[in-house]
Amino acid sequence: MSRIGRLPITVPTGVTVNIKEGEVTVKGPKGQLNRSFNPDMAITQKDNVLVVSRPSDSRSHRALHGLTRSLLANMVAGVSKGYEKSLEVVGVGYRVEKQGDKVVLRVGYTHLPEVVPMPGVTLDVEGANRIKVSGVDKEVVGQMAARIRGLRPLDDYKGKGIKYVGETVRLKPGKAGKAVGGK
To answer: Which domain does 33 fall in, by range?
Structure first.
C-alpha cells in the first residue's frame, strides 16, 4: 500500500469538508477550495479524520492513491493556514513597487513589467526588493511565484535577477580560462 496514501488527514477545528461523488469542498477560515477527484478513489470522513482508499492494486490506482491524499491534505492545510512564497529581487537598480493590487518590477528592461495577481492570490511588497505571494491554493501560489521569477531569471555569472528567499546562487567563473591559454 502507498506509504503516503494510507496516512490519515486530520481536519482541524473550524474546517468543514463536504464529499459528494468525487467532488470535495473544503471550507475554512482562510477561504474555500473545490476539487474533483477520480471516482475510483474512495474518500471517507470519520469524526475529524479523512481517509483515502483505493479499490485495487493496479498501477493506475496505486499512482492515484498517493496523489489524491496529497492534494486533499494540501486543500485542508490551505484553508486553515494558507500558503506563501517569498521572492527577492537582486541587482543594482532592481526594485519592486506596488500599484493597487498590481506589482511593477524594475529589473533592467526598457518597459516596466506589471504583474497582475491570479484569482485567489495576493501580492505584497516588503521593502524595495521583496515580494510575498500568498493564498489558499498551493498550486496557484507556486505557479504565480514561478511566473514572477520567470520575468528575470537569475544570471549565472553576476547573480542578478529574481530568486526565492533562501535560494543559493552558484556563480559560474566567467572567461578566466582564455587568458591562460594564449591565442
So the answer is: 9-80
